[in-house]
Amino acid sequence: MKIAIAGDHGGFLLKNELIKHLQELKIPYIDCGTDSQESCDYPDYAEKACKLVLSGKVTYAVLICGTGIGMSITANKINGIRAALCSDEFSAHFTRAHNDANVLALGARVIGPGLAVSILDAFINSKFEGGRHERRLEKIRQIERSHNHV
Ligand code: RB5
């Protein structure tokens, strides 16, 4: 498993906390920025990390902004990305089990670092169950294809 992690200025401090946790777990990661608390635009960082997921260079991406909403909206615009904004471990488990989510979005101004670590653990330790859920993912892919023209 390898993880891309990205945050805007609102997510910068929580990103550092989660990187420490990944280091403790010896899980390889790619830090996609940002590198400070200076104001920046979350779509730039969401796209960078999601591209790594789609290219297969990483297994998952973790995206952090103030609320997690901007990051999750951006990520879900990209075909093949299934991003889940989670503020609890239950949702983090089931978005892997049922939605095969490949991106976890977190709101650094919504949850504390301890909960964020537990949510990340629940996400990476949960497996997609397949079966009836695969049929539903295929329907999502069909919707992506049918709305793919501007
Ligand atoms: C930045 O102020 C804030 O808007 C951003 O971190 C995020 O919460 C957007 O959804």
Automatic annotation (TrEMBL):
Signal peptide: none annotated. It holds the Pfam family LacAB_rpiB. D-ribulose 5-phosphate binds at residues 8-9, 66-70, 99, 109, 132, 136. Its EC number is 5.3.1.6. SUPFAM superfamilies: Ribose/Galactose isomerase RpiB/AlsB (SSF89623). It comes from the Bacteria. It is an enzyme of class 5 (isomerase). GO terms for biological process: carbohydrate metabolic process. One of its GO terms (molecular function) is ribose-5-phosphate isomerase activity. Keywords: Isomerase. The active site is at residues 65, 98. Belongs to the LacAB/RpiB family. This is Ribose 5-phosphate isomerase B. It comes from Dialister micraerophilus DSM 19965. The gene is rpiB.
